[in-house]
Specification:
single chain, alpha/beta, Double Stranded RNA Binding Domain, D-Maltodextrin-Binding Protein, domain 2, six-stranded mixed β-sheet, globular, Porphobilinogen deaminase
Length: 358
């Protein structure tokens, strides 16, 4: 359990020290600070300590992520620290978390989603242009198979090359060399870093759908720590939770990871949750895309009051209607099964084999 210590004011009140694990990149630290800030506002007596760590994904910078083939590149070291009780909770970008978590862990909070779309960041010499108006054979940097597959199909006049590194590194590579006409990054990261002015274009779903969980932050905890789970559960944003449960269920049913091009788009209108999901061949020439919807209207009676918290695709959210969560999960599974019945497995198998052979 967490350490407890006497508060310095000598009034004998016991206050908790909660240790939060994070990756060391500037963006990860900004994201973790924002979660810590929210916890401090809700629990003023809390003492928070932030512990930075370097993950495998931070160390391997010369290989495309999809080639490494490891699903927990940015999360494993953080989870190891959680397992060893060195930290009490860990803040991740939800899109980095595999759809099946190791035993003993759960996502105790999914915070309100930032803009989940991808953004185009142009080399300064291309200011004012868009992907449509860039010259023939302009090179676009992205290490995401999902982005490359969709954009190759949509913008056949452009070329796509891998670019790795954290946000700072990628922007530096773009600005200081003439290798890339533009790079594609998640709008959420740029906004959190305060670099909105670098966004030249936000890619709409018809150009490029986003990754599962993109734009949302997740707090991972030990599933047995009921008190910590209860503490972070107030950070949950119910609409984001339902959208991300549907997206994660879709990806898990497809058995996709970052080594295959899978994309989603979700929205809530009135009490309907809409999920669009797609799979692509590596060059985008072959694809399947469908949309389904479900009602997420919840009656008050369906709020879960259970002793044993239920996990859905790794998420524990006992304060959000269990019925609505079940429907969101079922929506993801049903949509994946629809695509599988139309040949998604074959498209993804070929994509995986070709990517392995690259």
């Amino acid at each position: 359990m967490t350490e407890e210590q006497k508060s310095p004011d000598g009034n004998g009140k016991v206050s908790r020290v909660i240790r939060i694990g994070t990756r060391k990149s500037q963006l990860a630290c900004i994201q973790t600070d924002s979660v810590a800030e929210k916890l401090k506002q809700l629990y003023p007596d809390l003492h928070l300590e932030i512990i930075g760590m370097t993950t495998t994904g931070d160390k391997i910078l010369d290989t495309a992520l999809s080639k490494i083939g490891e699903k927990s590149l940015f999360t494993k070291e953080l989870e190891n620290a959680l397992e060893r009780n060195e930290v009490d909770l860990v803040v991740h970008s939800l899109k980095d978390l595999p759809t099946t978590l190791p035993p003993g862990f759960t996502i105790g909070a999914v915070l309100k989603r930032e803009n989940p779309h991808d953004a185009v960041v142009l080399h300064p010499k291309n200011a004012g242009k868009t992907l449509d108006t860039l010259p023939e054979n302009s090179v676009i940097g992205t290490s995401s198979l999902r982005r490359a597959a969709q954009l190759k199909k949509r913008f056949p006049h452009l070329e796509f090359k891998d670019i790795r590194g954290n946000l700072n590194t990628r922007l530096k590579k773009l600005d200081e060399k003439a290798d890339f006409a533009a790079i594609i990054l998640a709008a959420a990261g740029l906004r959190r870093m305060g670099w909105e002015n670098r966004i030249s274009q936000i890619l709409e779903p018809e150009d490029c759908m986003y990754a599962v969980g993109q734009g949302a932050l997740a707090v991972e905890v030990r599933a047995r720590d009921a008190d910590i789970l209860e503490m972070v559960s107030v950070l949950h944003d119910s609409e984001t939770v339902l959208r991300c449960i549907a997206e994660r269920a879709f990806l898990r049913q497809l058995e996709g990871g970052c080594s295959v091009p899978v994309a989603v788009h979700t929205e809530v209108k009135d009490t309907q949750l809409y999920l669009t999901g797609a799979v692509y061949s590596l060059d985008g020439s072959d694809s399947l895309k469908e949309t389904m919807q479900t009602s997420i209207a919840a009656d008050d009676k369906s709020l879960e009051q259970v002793d044993e918290p239920v996990q859905r695709v790794g998420v524990t959210a006992s304060k959000i209607s269990g019925e609505a969560q079940d429907r969101a999960e079922r929506l993801g599974v049903d949509l994946a099964n629809l695509l599988l019945s139309k040949g998604a497995k074959e498209i993804l198998t070929v994509a995986r084999q070709l990517n392995d052979a690259r």
